[in-house]
Write a structure and sequence with these properties.
With 594 residues, the protein is an alpha+beta fold. Helix content is 56%, strand content 6%. A hairpin with a 4-residue loop joins strand 4 and strand 5.
């Protein structure tokens, strides 16, 4: 039986605190260690645990801050509190009793924001994070108009609590995984089929003898190969850095292949690539999927799923990392829905805030503040390269902390309202390029197309600064196709094509072929596709994609011809999955001569 002595009870609370911390409940851990100190004031174990939490540099500041109960917000509230809390006051007593008393106060006066906040704190100290977030929701709703800073403080705390044990369904930052049954000999096929899967050093058990055979092999599945064929120059744009779609763990002992990523969309992309290949080569298999909250120390893990090519000099690597941080937060993160923003993306929440929704404004300010705390950790300083989160605030239309942190003429982080106020015709060329890139990151084709059309009409197309395909042509083409004007879409492609480099030009040709196929011009589409297919593995993949596009648009004979090309190229380059897929589609089309 556990000891009933103060020392024994204190040590039990110390262990309980560590259990809470392992479950990502730092407030509960703090409360347990404080209770241990009250039982045994000289407890070195409790003191050391509290000191460790306070100095835990890998945790955001909100996860290791000391929180205090708030006082009543009015004289009338003071009388009600004195009556309900009793003569001992709100700072003493059992947490469960205090939580119940503040709950009664909140029920009797639903507009008492301090009572809601204090009940949330008591519940968080007890480890009931889910209920605590619900109480903070009420506090923010009450304070967003009258006490905005207190509302922001409350929701910053909620960002910590939603990642903790018991509140898993509320978490916004997750790690996703999918596991398949896998035979060891299939790994060779996989690596041959997908050369963008690159090995990484296998983690070693601390203390293990170096060189011992390890059961686990680890790989990074990139969205493109790190090396460029023929030594062609690389793009310096942040959005063109190789991205890790998933980390792949191959276990020979358990005969499994596990793919893991902090981004569900990239994990889904690997499954879309992998499952048809498996079905073609080895038969259909199910995927065992899971999603769990990320550890507090790795909440921003999705920021770091990029790889800078090894040939880049250190100074250049630092520059690219900083550019990537800007691209990630200002062009990608702002579009991801968050439960902490009522299911809206930060950009959508910002739009609602501009229209007067003070609750969403408070929550958005808190979410950005929490992300800024992640970037301010000493352990992350080298990675963030001094990124000022006031750039993100400007992007979202929030008040800056330091108005001098971002130059007012820098349009790369301008928000929607700011871009819409611009006189496009009066912009100098460099600022117009900035405006186009900024608008493209907001993903509103109507805004981007208005700016991009200025570049195209005045022949101001840069070869390096912009991704011509994604930022200039794509919004123009989508707008034209949406209006049913396919010839206009092709015209935009043709007008930009002369300014494109070889890779971008090939992308534009593929888009042109897709439009031709969609508009009944199958022969023209096939001829264009054939001019793009080179006798290598990439050519086999392109031929297969082209054939499937032609099939989707009813051009069976043209598709049959390209399927034969895809099959033959895949066979000669060892791309078994492409070969099997092409042969299967040929079988469905019948045995007509190629």
């Amino acid at each position: 039986m556990p000891s009933s002595s103060p020392v024994g009870s204190s040590m039990a609370l110390v262990h309980e605190g560590w259990d809470h911390l392992r479950a990502q409940r730092p407030l509960s851990a703090w409360a347990s260690w404080q209770r241990a100190l009250r039982l045994e004031p000289r407890s070195s174990a409790a003191g050391q645990a509290l000191a460790m939490l306070e100095s835990a540099a890998d945790l955001p500041a909100a996860a290791r801050a000391v929180y205090r109960l708030r006082g009543p917000t009015s004289a009338a509230g003071r009388a009600a509190w004195d009556d309900r809390l009793g003569s001992r006051g709100a700072g003493d007593g059992d947490l469960e009793v205090l939580a119940d008393r503040f709950g009664r106060l909140a029920s009797e006066n639903p507009d008492d924001s301090a009572a809601w906040y204090n009940r949330a704190l008591c519940l968080a100290w007890m480890g009931n994070n889910r209920a605590a977030v619900g109480c903070l929701e009420r506090a923010v709703a009450l304070e967003a108009e009258s006490a905005f800073d207190r509302a922001v403080e409350a929701w910053t705390l909620a960002e910590v609590l939603r990642q903790g044990g018991g509140a898993e369904s509320l978490a916004d930052d997750l790690r996703f995984a999918g596991t398949l049954d896998w035979e060891p000999q299939e790994l060779t096929w996989l690596l041959d089929e997908f050369p963008e899967i690159q090995p990484v050093p296998t983690p070693q058990v601390p203390g293990a003898e170096a060189g011992l055979d390890c059961d686990i092999e680890v790989f990074h599945w990139l969205d493109r190969c790190l090396s460029v064929p023929g030594g062609a120059p690389r793009s310096t744009r942040a959005g063109d850095l190789p991205v890790v779609l998933a980390t792949v763990y191959h276990s020979r002992a358990s005969r499994t292949l596990r793919l893991s990523s902090p981004r569900v969309e990239t994990l889904q992309r690997t499954e879309e690539l992998l499952l048809p290949w498996i079905e073609a080569v080895a038969g259909r298999r199910s995927v065992r999927r899971e999603a769990l909250p990320r550890p507090l120390a790795f909440l921003d893990a999705d920021v770091w799923m990029i790889r800078v090519p090894t040939e880049v000099e250190p100074a250049g690597s630092d520059h690219r990392m900083r550019d990537w941080i800007e691209h990630f937060y200002e062009n990608e993160w702002i579009h991801r829905p968050r439960q902490g923003l009522e299911g809206l993306s930060p950009l959508s929440a910002a739009s609602a805030a501009r229209q007067g929704n003070r609750v969403l404004r408070a929550k958005l300010v808190a979410v950005v503040r929490f992300r800024e705390q992640l970037g301010s950790r000493p352990s992350a300083a080298r990675l963030y390269q001094g990124y000022p989160f006031d750039r993100l605030r400007r992007r979202l239309g929030l008040e800056p902390i330091d108005p001098t942190a971002v130059h007012p003429d820098d349009l790369t982080c301008a928000g929607p309202a700011e871009l819409d106020r611009l006189d496009f015709a009066a912009l100098e060329h460099p600022r117009l390029i900035e405006a186009v890139a900024s608008a493209a990151g907001l993903r509103d084709d109507s805004r981007t197309a208005r700016l991009a059309s200025e570049l195209v009409r005045h022949r101001l197309l840069p070869a390096v600064e912009l991704d011509l395909a994604a930022m200039v042509v794509a919004p123009l083409v989508r707008r034209a196709i949406g209006a049913g004007d396919f010839d206009a879409a092709i015209d935009w492609i043709d007008r930009v094509h002369p300014a494109a480099d070889a890779a971008t030009g090939a992308t534009l040709d593929v888009w042109r072929a897709e439009i031709l196929a969609r508009t009944g011009r199958g022969d023209a589409a096939m001829q264009l596709y054939r001019s793009l297919v080179h006798p290598d593995a990439a050519g086999a993949a392109l031929a297969l994609d082209a054939a499937e596009t032609l099939l989707d648009n009813g051009h069976r004979d043209q598709a049959r011809s390209l399927l034969g090309t895809a099959r033959d190229l895949a066979r000669s380059t060892g791309r078994r999955g492409i070969e099997q897929r092409a042969q299967a589609l040929l079988g469905r089309l019948g045995s007509h001569p190629l």
